Amino acid sequence: MGTNNDAVLMPVSGQIEYSDMVAAMLPLLKFQTSHITLFHVIETPVSTPLESEGMDEILRSSEVKIQPLKDWLNKQGYAAEIKIVAARNVASAIAEEASTSKYSMVFMMKRRRKKGLLGRFSRSVTENVIQHVDCPVVTILV
Predict the structure, then answer these.
(1) Are 119 and 105 in contact (CB under 8 A)?
(2) Which of 5, 6, 11, 2 is nearest to 92 (CA)?
(3) Which fold has domain 7-141?
(4) Rounded Cα distance, 21 and 28, in Å
(5) Number of H helices, E strands in the chain
(6) How far is residue 31's CA from residue 36's CA, in Å, rounded to a whole number?
(7) Which of 66, 99, 128, 140 has minimal Cβ neighbours within 10 Å of its Cβ?
């Protein structure tokens, strides 16, 4: 893929249901965007090598889960692609990918904040990405 000034990076969590993703995508249709990269990060603990033996199967399994969203986007007229990476930190991996010059925007789905003490002290992946990228970040609460 070459450089696209209108390409959108859309991080996809394995924990969001397909129907939620489709509903969250509807507002994106208003943007003038032709290319969307569905970006999934498989977070691996420090004790696991990033190129470990079962990683290929995990990558394939993740791609199968994301494929229906890619197919739906393609039917809507977008050029969608899936990119899956293994990394130590999800927010850092998203920020690193977003920092490449090919993206004009990051489109993220944000889950509701945890309640109680844990929610007060934890920063969301979205908040971390916003602080570390130069392009606009659009968030949709799901």
Answers:
(1) no
(2) 11
(3) Rossmann fold (3.40.50)
(4) 11
(5) 5, 5
(6) 11
(7) 99
Helical (H) or strand (E) element with 103: strand 103-110
Q: Are 46 and 89 in contact (CB under 8 A)?
A: no
The string of DSSP letters for 47-84 reads TS-TT-TTHHHHHHHHHHHHHHHHHHHHHTT-EEEEEE
Q: pLDDT (tens digit, 9 = 90+) per residue, 21-68? A: 777 777 766 666 789 999 999 888 766 665 666 778 888 888 898 998
- Name the pairing type of β-strands 35-43 and 103-110: unpaired
**Residue 137 three-state SS:** strand
Q: Are 90 and 127 in contact (CB under 8 A)?
A: no
Domain ranges of the chain: 7-141
Query: What is the pTM assigned to this prediction?
Result: 0.79
